[in-house]
Amino acid sequence: MAALVRCPSLLYRPLRFFASMSRKFVQDPHKLLLIPGPIEVADEVLYANAHPSMSHMSPDFASAFGDCIRMTRDILYSKDAQPFLIAGSGTFGWDQVSANLVEPDEDVLVLNCGYFAEGFADCLHAYGAKVDQLTAVIGGTVKLSDIEAALKRKKYKLITVTHVDTSTAVLSNIKVVAELVRRVSPDTLIVLDAVCSVASEEIQMDAWGIDVVLTASQKGLGTPPGLSIVVVSQMALKVFENRSTPVRTYYASWKKWLPIMKAYERNAAAYFATPPVNLIYAYRASLTQITRGPVSLQDRFEAHKDTSRRFKKFAESLGFKSVPLTEDVSANGMTALYFPDGIIASDIVPSLLKKDVVVAGGIHSAIKDKYFRVGHMGVTAVNPERGDMDKISDALAETLKEAKASKL
Ligand SMILES: Cc1ncc(COP(=O)(O)O)c(C=O)c1O
Fold it and tell me: What are the alphabetically sorted keywords of the record (predicted)?
């Protein structure tokens, strides 16, 4: 005891020992979360989220933020696009685009493959844009010939494409759409809502000529919800800088945020509004796994494709039918399935929950009660040893058997 009084650091040694033990953090048992976001999160990411409180002006935090900016670019294969990492959800990306890139009464074109394109259109409209929509049949994408005709009819300031519309699990071929826009209307900015696709689908921002990629932390990026991630090409930034009217937003203004992002990238802190400090540590942990981990980015995309193909095939063998009309427009990070004849949502979703598997119901208004949705992004797809897909496959087969038996 006397030694402890003389040398208080001895007192803390056992505490430090236990603190280092907690690095082998393991999550409490919980129901398997297989909705299309938020998704299951790796232990290391949750542990990083529990980082001790830090000043957002400290050098340690600034360098963590800088890492996030650089690695965000890496995931999108971009050399010089500008990431904006701001507290908010995916929807806040819509606000940023609508408020910063569109001036009142400018024309925008929205490619609509479901509920989330409707939302983006609504947001653009709220900021004063004149919005035209090209709407696909349910389960399909907008025809290239219709896009070309629309671009030839009118000069659009920007076009929005929802990469994966989470309401239908429809995947749009952004590479081909971007090629078409660049050829027919080179000044039209190409905005990709990639909330449900970053890190589960390949996006080559520079090579494909995409101007804005907007996303959020809670899906393929494998981080808890709360971080809005918007990445803007240098060309789009110039368009923003050359606006003829002032920006009509405060918190979403890139004028406010650009110097902050630039400072953090130099590993120097700067302040406009308090960043979500712990989430930045969590995001850095996830980005480190994604960009520097044992699985390369390309292999990550392949793992999502493989998981998706197997699960869709299995579900179809049970009698479910995919909402996307063909394989080439099917997302790889999620699946939307129509119920077999005679089966309804209440036969399936609650019963899966009882088996500790959480899935999502339908949200596309035209087919809402006819289908349900399963997310298989991030660790669920990339770490098959977790057994997530085995668990849902077994639970789904058993649930369907029970539902059929109960109707006899
Ligand atoms: C494609 C798409 N866009 C936008 C959003 C909105 O994101 P958030 O719910 O994080 O605001 C979502 C949410 O699921 C989405 O899937």
Answer: Aminotransferase, Pyridoxal phosphate, Transferase
